[in-house]
Amino acid sequence: MSSPNVMKYWLLLESLIFPGDAKNSDSTISEQERIAKNNEVLQRSMQLSPTEVAKILIEDLEVSRLNNKEQYVACNVDEKTIYSIYLLMTIRTIYKNTNFNSDKVEDLISEHHRRQISYCIEDIAENGLKPNIHCAFRGDRKSIFGESIRKDPNLCLVELLVEGIASFMCITSLPIIRSSDEITLCYIAALYTLIFVSDLKGDEMNESNVVSTKAKLNKLWGSVPKVTYFRNLMMLYGMVENEKKSIVHRDLLLKLWSPGGFVALLFAMQKSDKEEQSVKDVVVKLVSQPSYPKRAQASIVNQILCFLKASIDNKDAISYMGTGLISLRKLCENSIYNRKIVEDWLIKQVQPLLDLQKDCLTVMEWSEFSSMVHLFFQAFCTSTIECLPSEFLVPFIPLLITLYQYIDKYKTKPFVDVVCNHLSHLILRILNNRTTEELNIIIMNMASDEYPKQWLKVNSRVRIEEDILNSQHLKIVQREEKQECDSFISCSHMNSLAELLKKSSFSTLALKVFIILFKLFPTVGSMKKSLVDESMNNMDLLICDEDIQSRVIWEISNKYNGKIQIINALHILIEHKPLKSLLMENISELISVIEEFLVVCTEIGDENSHQLDKNVVVILLTLIREIVENGPVQSENVKRNLLGHLLKLQATTRDRDLNLHIVYLKQKIENGSGATPGIKVNEERFEEARTLLESKEPYKQVEGIQLFITLIKSKDVLTISNVHVIMALALNALKSPESYTFLNCVRLFASMVYLDEHIILETLTEEYLNESAGMDDRLLIGEALLKVCYEIGPLCYKYKNILLNCYMFGCRSPLDEFRFSSFSNLAQMCKILSYDVHKYFQELLNLINCELTSGKYVPAKRAAVMVLSELLSGMDNLIDFQEMLLPIYRLLKFLASSERTDEKIRLHASVGLETLAKKTKEFLSLTANEMSLEKEIQIRGIKMNSKHNFKSHILYME
Question: How far apart are CA 384 and CA 389, in angstroms?
Answer without folding.
Answer: 9
